[in-house]
Amino acid sequence: MKWKLFKSKNKYQAINRNIQMENINQSGPLKKTLKDNIKQVKEALGESSDIVTREFLIGEDGKIKLGLFYIEGLANTTFIQDIILKTLMIDIRKANLNTTAYSKKKAFEILRDFVLSVGNMKEIADFENLLTSLLSGDAIVLIDGYEQGFAIDSKGWEERGVTEPTSQTVVRGPKDSFSETLRTNISLIRRRIKDPSLWIETKQIGRRTKTDVAIVYIKGVASDKIVKEVRRRLDKIDIDGILESSYIEELIQDETYSFFPTVYNTERPDSVAAGLLEGRVAILVDGTPFVLLVPTLFVQYFQSSEDYYQRSDIGSLLRILRYLSFFIALLTPSLYIAVTTFHQEMLPTPLLISIAAQREGTPFPAFVEALMMEITFEILREAGIRMPRAVGPAISIVGALVLGEAAVKAGIVSPVMVIVVSITAISSFVSPTYNMAIAVRILRFLFMTLAATFGLFGIALGLIAMVLHLCSLRSFGIPYMAPMAPFIWNDQKDVIVRSPIWNMFSRPRLINQKNIIRQQSPSMAKPKPPQKKQ
User: Fold this and answer.
1) What is the dihedral of CA 82, 85, 86, 88, to 10 degrees?
2) What stretches of 429-455 show up as alpha helix (H) in DSSP?
């Protein structure tokens, strides 16, 4: 065993050495001659065909030689042609920068201080920063004879515009959603929170993809401890690539082996803005429209943006329906199996006779019957998602109707089981978040197995185990079941029912400890009817 561990350790050390040697070949300071710099850039990128290089001379006497690099498809060629090249090749001659007033200045300083009229520009002095900027869509300008250059922001790739959300739709409320571009997503948050305390920290994660990841929080509202913990977990990530925010979610979540998600994701900017105002921290990943919010509470998965855009009584009713649907989707098949298999005495006699008559010709026990129908419905649901959008819904609905009716006529399942599975499936769609609905779908099969084995006692045992597991979970140090466990009375105004806006004057206590009050007291904010004139 020790020899195997030793071999495995040596194997990973050799891999790390190869990675380090590869990084050394793509790092180091810039060369002094432009020719050597061009050669090393082309060798590092394997003479790729989408690299555009342009060498030209500037100055009245044409003694200063420059090189321009950019990646076709990532950089805005119109910007490069009209702003960078036109400035360097034409406008610089009109400016007459070779006069005695500038004779003591170096060409590098002249270009930086007087010539390049762009807003976002940074100096580069090594190949690692040069390649990272080049592959991020920047234009690189190098000067012959100088070991420095410029990276000019010229990003201009094709991107999807701001569209309606696809996974979290609302009847009343904003219709915009995040896109795959980090800059666009940050601007959508900035539009809603025009506060200088909204701080954004950007870092690159992934040895090869170098994906831009932004940490967004409101300074003075978010807990410094939570922000520090988010930074620590992100800094620990060492991976080849980050292609979607789910990579980050799995790498920073508290509990890996749990059906329940401990990191909230959404594609709605208003949901992220609301979370930031409560003291949460948002994590934005370039290349995905789904933004992560931490810390996360269990009750958060039953809240929708629309709850706060409707009146408090309507929002409370919708939220109660979601909690009810959660238990219907989780327990309905298992309750049917337990009652019909072990506890027939709990049913009224007419209903028991009706169910027994329907199941008279059914060859399978209730558990096998429910298992077949649930698996069939899950297959139809997945097929409806993967099918082309034009035929997907039709296939899933027609398939469910045809298969259900055919199964009943063939005597494989009873009509009651079709009703039970249909109610369960419809209730699972009520959840406003997709990942919580998946957790319910998985747990449903476990409860069905417990019900078929121990009856209602098995269901009770499963519920106790589930509640104990939920109470043991943490999300960045915050109890997952707060404010129900631990019970916080002041935070109950936004759990099962939603109080009016004027009554929600404080932020969640466990998430925010230093800036609790977010509006004036209820006695002042509550609207009062006009007084009658005497």
Assistant:
1) 150
2) 434-454
* Token couple for 502: 């004027």
pLDDT tens digit string along 124-152? Answer: 888 888 888 888 888 898 888 888 888 88
Residue 112 is classified by DSSP as I
Sheet containing 281-285: which strands, arranged edge to edge? 198-205, 211-218, 281-285, 291-294, 264-266
Cβ-count burial 101-140 (b if 16+ within 10 Å, e if not): ebeeeebbebbeeeebeeeebeebeebebbbbbbebbbbb
* pLDDT tens, position by position, 181-197: 898 899 999 999 998 99
Query: Do β-strands 291-294 and 281-285 pair in parallel, antiparallel, or remain unpaired?
Result: antiparallel
What span, in angstroms and rounded, lies between the C-alpha atoms of 448 and 451?
5
Across 409-428, b (16+ Cβ under 10 Å) vs e yields eeebbbebbbebbbbbbebb
Residue-level pLDDT at 94: 56
Distance CA 184, CA 430 (A): 30
Task: Look at residue 6 in the predicted model and tell me its pLDDT.
Answer: 44
Q: What is the pTM of this model?
A: 0.84
Locate 493 and state its tokens: 């105004």
Q: Is the pLDDT of residue 446 over 90?
A: yes
Binning the chain into helix, strand and coil, the percentages to the nearest 5 are 50, 15, 35
Residues 6+ apart with CB under 8 A from 344: 352
pLDDT at 524: 59
Measured CA to CA in angstroms, residue 146 lies from 31, 40, 43 at distances of 8, 15, 20
**Residue 56's beta-bridge partner residues?**
66
Tokens describing residue 1? 């065993």
Domain boundaries, the chain: 24-152, 182-296, 312-479
DSSP codes, 234-274: HHT---S---SHHHHHHHH-S-SS-SS-SSEEES-HHHHHH
CB within 8 A of 115, min separation 6: which ones? 87, 88, 91, 92, 95, 97
Q: Cα 302 to the chain's mean position, in Å?
A: 18
| Mean pLDDT on 321-329 | 94
C-alpha distance from residue 162 to each of 192, 239, 289, 364, 455 (Å): 15, 30, 10, 51, 51
- Tell me the one-letter amino acid at 95: A
Neighbours of 100 (CB within 10 A): 6
Enter the tokens of residue 264.
Answer: 């909230």
The two counts, helices (H) then strands (E), for the chain are 19, 12
Average pLDDT, whole number, for the chain?
83
